[in-house]
Amino acid sequence: MSTNKRWLGLMAAVLVAGAASAAEVPASFDAKNCKTEYPKASLMNEEQGTVSMSFLVSASGEVKDSKVEKSSGFKNLDKAAIKSLSACKFKPGTKDGAPAETWTKVDYAWKLD
Fold it and tell me: Which of 19, 37, 106, 113 has CA 20 to 30 A from 49's CA?
């Protein structure tokens, strides 16, 4: 399999924010519809790891802000995860049953096959 066509077997988990109130539901996304390409340099160096991120998602499902909470240990993997997932369409979170801007946490695991 060529490195420029190799796609990551996505292993992402949206974690429910511990500080969220019962009336607030954080945003989520469908991992199957959100693909990320393994960075070429990371493939060549056989880098793997899990990056934990937070995303501020608007009421329309667009990412407004993002940050790395815990690094995978490799800058290229962290940057690629933030860039790719920031471009994904999220299902907006809700507050009191209505779509609202919310923070959500995502763990993204980079694994070589």
Answer: 19
